[in-house]
Amino acid sequence: MVGSAELTIVHGKGGGVLLKEALCIGCHNCQEACTLGAVFWDEKAQKPMICVHCGTCAKYCPHAVLDLEESVAEEVPNVR
Amino acid sequence: MSVDRLCRVLYLDLTRKTHEVRERPEVFEPGLGGTHAAIRLLEEECPSGADPLGPENAVVFAVGPLTCLFPLASKTVAMFKSPLTGNLGESHAGGRSAVAIRHAGYGAIVVRGASDLPIYLVVGGSRVQFRDASAIWGMTRASTSAKIIRHRESGSGLRTIMRIGRAGERLVRYASVTTETYRHFGRLGLGAVLGSKKLKAIQVSGRASIAVTDPKQYQAVYDEIHTAAVESELMKKYHDLGTAVNVSHLLEMGGLPARNLRETRYEGAEALSGANLAANYLGRRLACAHCPVACIHIAALRQPYEEEPYFYKTSMISYDYELIYALGTMLGISDAFGYLRLTEAVEDCGLDAMTTGVVLAWATEALERGLITTAETLDAKLAWGDWQAYAQAVHFIVEQPNEFYRTLAQGVTAAAERYGGQDFALALNRVEMAGYHTGPGAYANYLTGARHSHLDSAGYTLDQKADPQRTPERLAAELLKEEQWRQILSSLVVCFFARGIYKPDLVCRALAVAGVSLTEDDLGRLGRGILAAKHRLKQREGFSWTEYALPKRIFETPALGQPISEEALRQTVAEFARLAAEAQGAG
What is the pTM of this model? Predict the structure, then answer.
């Protein structure tokens, strides 16, 4: 996941992760590393598609299963 | 390909994230696996006085010489030091586990050390991968984490995935390991041991072949076993209604523990019978790999969403006699839906159903008697039949938000030591009782069995065959003999349900085809030796035949209509100890 001395993908402030596109070399390692299969691939740009928390999925979930909430890093489980 | 592949042992070191394969013919000598090999490997791996939840504890999985070759030889034996008893832990499970391990080319897998980060392992033949499990650690539903592994890894159809749930991660001393969603290494806390090692799951698969000495003879012995399996009455019973068939039977006889063993029957218990579950909920039946019986009964539980009409969630929930006892009658549940919902809660987090039920039954009575209050239970109003309150408590046992639930997470003996109520805390040698209140045979079995499991020597079946000549001495001898023979079955890894088929003569012929030449006398000697080895390890870890407590409740409630005599029970245990010491000396 480390493209240079700086991390290409970092924890976002309000939860989730952010892609620093300028640092990304399109190596696919992040996609490979995601146990949940949640990283998709933009074939045209040759970059990962990382969730940007736009909330569209939550808005259109027919059963209100999804909800978009802001959280602080300490409350996110499994952050080590 | 040679038949000696059984002697290959895969060593997995979680601390260093390394693996090694070693040929260990001396461990399997003269050709048995299962408990025979596992006790030898555990003796080597687990140092005296090891902390069950420390990296020094080891876990051994072992399969047998008949696995893959013959039907009904598809059990995996797990051995470890138990965090529930602080002594020998042994648990058996089927599913695809044994067949997958043998096809991967191993007779046993040894897990050593502990990982610093959550991991899961993928074993494919000689290739072993250590995978990051951080993203699936902490998931509320164990089946979801297993589903993610299934999707991410290849090997569908041939593999086993043995995994823990939240209870194992949280080190509940009776957390289980689930394999293929519906089968379990249920008892004695293997799940907590894996949790302490930060090992979320192990996937195993492979395509190794297994040779036979004489193909013609192989076919003949195979047909004999297969025909017996599909035609036997006993197997038909397990196929039709499953182990749940015993519910009505035991209720009728007055041997099914109900409401913390205050009674053996109550209004509404019949709702949990095998016939009722099959008529209203049975969704499908499944078999372990290479079993023509298919005793696994799975309920389809359709649950409506409250806010939307015609919208349902359907869960598939495996049910068995022991679960119906522990999460049903022991808690006074009188509707099948509630029983299944509670089972689902227990499955979601990966707890041993039997211990959980006994713990909750004690807590209900302790609450009734004022030993604890709803301040301790965090407002869970535990009351007979209230499955929702029990499901709430199951969640608390796993998350352990206060001292009360932290204590419950250590088993009923620990709970009674802290809060009182020893007289109705139904564990023998720290292992919560099974669903048989049938008489002295059952209790002598719980007390003397190496695992303190009803399956060690099946004392409950002796109780059901009344014999006026059965003195405590004779009962002890019968239990010991049965337990010694079962060491052979569990070293072949034959399912105990098939014990009526795998008689000594047939075992010798099946072994011969697998390249193992043993006589019936050899089997007898080996069985005695394996049990003696277990007793030695137990004594090394502090087990004593004379120090045990008997909850008064077992003498207050008649068993099959008769009160149990404490004196006769103690005599039986003393005689068993004497005979076992003699056998140990002879070995």
Answer: 0.95
